[in-house]
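Build the 3D complex.
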Amino acid sequence: MVHCLPAATVSRLPLYHQILKSLLDRGRDFVSSDTLAKLMSIDPSLVRKDLASLGSGTQRLGYHVATTMASIETILGMRNTKEAFLVGVGSLGRALLAYRGFCDYGLKIVAAFDTDNSKVGQTIGDAKVMAAEKLPGLARRLGIRMGIITVPAGVAQHVAEVMVESGITAIWNFAPVMLEVPEFVLIRNENLAAGLARLSYDYEQRLNNTKEGEGEQP
Amino acid sequence: MVHCLPAATVSRLPLYHQILKSLLDRGRDFVSSDTLAKLMSIDPSLVRKDLASLGSGTQRLGYHVATTMASIETILGMRNTKEAFLVGVGSLGRALLAYRGFCDYGLKIVAAFDTDNSKVGQTIGDAKVMAAEKLPGLARRLGIRMGIITVPAGVAQHVAEVMVESGITAIWNFAPVMLEVPEFVLIRNENLAAGLARLSYDYEQRLNNTKEGEGEQP
DNA sequence: TAGATTGTTAATCGATTAACAATC
DNA sequence: TAGATTGTTAATCGATTAACAATC
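Done.
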């Protein structure tokens, strides 16, 4: 393996990228670990450690914005186009199909699938909606390796199995289910409700603290 | 503070909840830490440690599905309704408005806002779309504390500031920007592109490994 | 040169795993 | 009772922070 960065570092790279992009847009050439750290609410030395692995720092000046962005893009594989199929043309599926931003990350959704025949034939974004049963044949023919699941929880496991049988080995899963798939299949769960629950917990927590704080005052 | 669970535990609670729900649907009364661990691809002792804080385990039998779910719901504050405003009725905003699942988590999106007048007046899900300038007044009047941002990156910071000025203290942010807000404001970033980047990295990584593996064979 | 800022090492912290006694 | 399974302690691992020397 050329790069084998710590998992925590990898999950911060997209955030650095995002910030660097906005700095680039504003015409900044260099940025310091301190500035980045403040924007991300983390420690400056963590920024330095993360970016040291990219080897793009310059003492006294900081990090060159464009170069650092480019390194991140390479490491994350944003520059290699990955063609994907999406299954489940509900409101979330539609939103993902319509979103233009993913192509910056090398993702190209080439077709969408749904069991609802009234949706078949529509075009959303760049993708045409097709009948679900056409997926296996097309996936094989086009050599598709990535699948996006935006179906309801109840059918997601089935969809995942069909995808795997059709040669798909990386799944971006938006259904709130833990999919059971063979070990060689990559899964990335994007559980919106889990994110909400997290926010909800912190919210609750703060309410309780405030109440207690009030109670403690004499 | 009554509960102050480790951050890692909190982020797993929604996943336990999700799995327990599907077990309940299938009529299971009890489940062991081993079974849960397998479904989540984590260590059984981690499951026991997480759930011990809920105090719902029964030796020899495992965890009572319904009771454990209920505890999680209480801890995560899923049972308290939180009224929210959503700003940005694009395709993602529409998807969130249309999604029925959030009310299980205590979230009720009571209104949506957009600067595009052609969208004003529409009803999506249970929410009516209103003109953006009405947000501050309404938020104050209704005592809204939670905001959902689904606008493009470029205007997200501005929207966040308006929200904060209007009394909103918890923000669920879907725009790919790190928002700068006062310390007392809770932020939960839901960065889809970051998730994609993560999957993309693992995908790339595997490709490289495979290639190297092949190369090494004599 | 002096000063700012990186890169890197050691120290700390928190999360996960392993092991096993407690118990239903 | 014997066996299964939790709860909990100690050990390990990985991630973050603090400190500072290297350097442009």
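Residues 6-9, 42-46, 49, 58-61 of chain A lie near DNA strand D (CB under 10 Å from a C1').
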